[in-house]
Amino acid sequence: MLYNLLVPLADQYSFLNIFQYITLRSGGAVLTSLILSFIFGPYVINQLKIRQKKGQPIRKEGPERHIIEKAGTPTMGGLLILIAVCISTLLWANLQNIYVWIVVGVTLAFGTIGFVDDYLKIKRRSSSGISGRVRLLLQTLICLGACWFVAGASPDGLEYRLAFPFFKDLLFNMGWMFFVFAPFVIVGTANAVNLTDGLDGLAIVPVMIAAACFGMITYLVGNAVFAEYLHIHYIPGSGELAIFCGALLGAGLGFLWFNAPPAMIFMGDTGSLALGSALGIMSVITKHEFVLAIIGGLFVLETISVIVQVISFKLTGKRVFRMAPLHHHFEQKGWAESTIVIRFWIIATILALVGLSTLKLR
């Protein structure tokens, strides 16, 4: 909004030229979303406590201590993140940029699915909300629509292409398979973040790390000079997504203030599905799907642990892990929650650095 209002006036007032710079507006988005989180946080938490009363239903299949320690904590904290991210993005981003609207649209759509899922869980006082099939169908339909817009907005020759890290000129033309692969990436990332969100602060920090990385990636991919220097594919206009990433980073920091152990609020499916989908759609836009798998490797590990556990139990009747997802396995081994969370943060940081290194190693 500020970009669209102030930049046209730069010819008359030269100091307004600063609003053309993505770096400045990204910084503004970080601060704005952080401040909004601090302002609205106590109110949102209080209202959710009043309306939810008993808080988020705790899965009986999870660790026993969660039933005691986490009972009564309200969920749907993703609302706080979405409020801060959307207001900050709309304030600082170029609203004529189609990529901004695609990412915001997907994030809000997945957040809505998560909100309904959380609402049904609270209403039924059960850990089951929307059925898995219905949720998967809705997510897929949203992704198909978003990918159609992405393909239409992409530069000629890159619409249905798949890029590979470490190879500067290797592009695979997926054709119609793009509409299978891209939704798989987005839906997979959304649900992977959802699986990771099981301990206080566990999911939000890796999401912030990934958002910071994609803030850099979107900026570089959207800059012709840097893209040519790094031998990555130039996507005009994608740099504007750095503002969204900044807003996500600031909102994540604000949410962590209230989600730090012991958590005053959980993000719920409202937050985890929205945040995961945002990372997924940005990777599709920038042609960095495989890089996302590296940067978000912690989410991948958590998902694989669940898949391995289910397959092993169905085929052999035995469990590979004491409990899945992976963070519960370490809980069952006696690790303190704070130990698990911080060590997983360290792993997420290392994987992010590895993922960013692929930008130069080509």
Structural features:
two-stranded antiparallel sheet; globular; 362 residues; mainly alpha
The outline comes out as: globular
What's the main sheet like?
Answer: 2 strands, antiparallel
Helix content: 55-70%
What is the count of β-strands? 2
Q: Could you say which structural class the secondary elements and strand pairing correspond to?
A: mainly alpha
Number of helices, counting only DSSP H or I runs of 4 residues or more: 15
**What is the C-alpha radius of gyration, as a whole number of Å?**
20 Å
Strand order of the largest sheet: 1-2
Parts with pLDDT < 50 across at least 5 consecutive residues? none
| Number of spatially distinct domains | 1
Distance between the termini: 37 Å
Strand content: under 5%
Order of helices and strands: HHHHHHEEHHHHHHHHH
Mean pLDDT, nearest integer? 91
